[in-house]
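## retry 2 of 3
previous attempt timed out at serialization; input unchanged, resubmitting
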Amino acid sequence: MGMAVPKILKAFLILAGAWILALVAKYMAVKAMRRFRLGDKLEKVMDAEATEKEKADVIESAGNFVFYFIILLSLLPFLEALELNALVDPLKAMFSKVLTFLPNLIAAVAVLVLGYFLARLAERVATNFALAAGVNRLVEGMKFETVLKSLNVARVIGTVVFLALMAPILGMAFQILDLPIITGVFATMMNEVAAAIPKMLGAFILLILGLIAGRYLGDMLAKILSDVGFDVILSRIGLEKLNRKEGEEPLFKLSGVAGNLVAALVVLFCAMEGFRMMNM
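## retry succeeded, writing output
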């Protein structure tokens, strides 16, 4: 019993020292992140608005990570002081594997963080360039603008650039981590996506052309039918009450209905051809 007391005191002194060190490290980490306004910088990078509470939660979570990481590292000397070899040996093996893997993990995280910053920067450049080129104004000036009125084309272009850059960055991170199974699956998936991109792009272009052609052909047909008197057919055959009440404007024009029908058929045909191009 007398031999055990010094071991227990030594172990708890180690744990107490680690606890104090962890608290100090957490305090310094949180203070440094607040001083450098890490929450505001993350908000700019993520391109999203965050409340003060959410920013504080991010900083507090980072501080908690530092705290518990130091506590975890102190477990090994704590158990060694108690001479609990049955727990110390597997824990040493675990720490050895973690420390061997740690450089790869740090390098992979650095690649991901740096790649994410660069991809976000490229996204903003592409979005602003598309806005300056007037892509949104071009879409708004087209006949099918009502179909895409909620779509920010410049933002879509920026998102595509971001995803196109992040995909190879993820592949590099998996290679650095030396995870052959995940790397192989990811490479196979990316090859399939790369093979499908030309087909998807062709189908998308075909659909856009179908929207444009369908709208213009529909409007042209509607104007021609209106000029030849197609809209008065119902009144000629005594069915004008189906379209309007007495003294009121017509509910619809037959020429417009015919134009919309033609436009829908053109878009449907292009959509079917697009699905066929994608083997769907």
